[in-house]
Amino acid sequence: MKTLTPRTIVAVAAVAVACVIGLLVVGRMRSGQRRAADPAMSAGLRTMALSASRQSLGLPPSSRPVVALMDIATDEYTLTVVATDDGSASLYFSNGGGLMGGGQRHEAIRRAALEMIGVAGQSVPQMASVKEYPLPGAGQTSFYVVTDAGVRSATAPTRRIEGDRSHPLRALYAAGQDVITQHRRSQQRPS
Description:
The protein has one domain (6-188). A 7-stranded antiparallel beta sheet has the order 4-3-2-1-6-7-5, sandwiched between helices. The chain is built from 5 helices and 7 strands; from the N terminus they run ααββββαβββαα. The protein is of the alpha+beta class.
């Protein structure tokens, strides 16, 4: 039997807390309750995703990215799409709320998350190494890819990515959009 280290226990506890928060968010959204959303919760979940490691998520060794994250900023809020190498995918809104997981219950979300991870791996060479993870300004889309070697990032105007089929970030943007689409579809049909 394997002995749990304090670091493993902390990582498991952090994931458990994130899951409980996610269940509360999803439960509130499904029950139709109209409470004020907590922007700090979404920001905290985003920060957790950006500081995740293969070990903290219990993932086996791989050359694939651990997390692919896309922030799409509008005038009102930023939508954050998070995909992990285990097929989980979440959506967070900077003004509070979101949808967590998805890939555990919906195969289409899982496939979209894994596709986003795969495309993110191909996009890493076009990205810069970063240590800070600011949200983009309105009209911008930022990508963060968490790898075993650190975090890489790129930002571009959303309209340019959408309008230029040869834009170097277009495939990653499209993969992130598919995660959003699959989450939306999962909310429209019974699970």
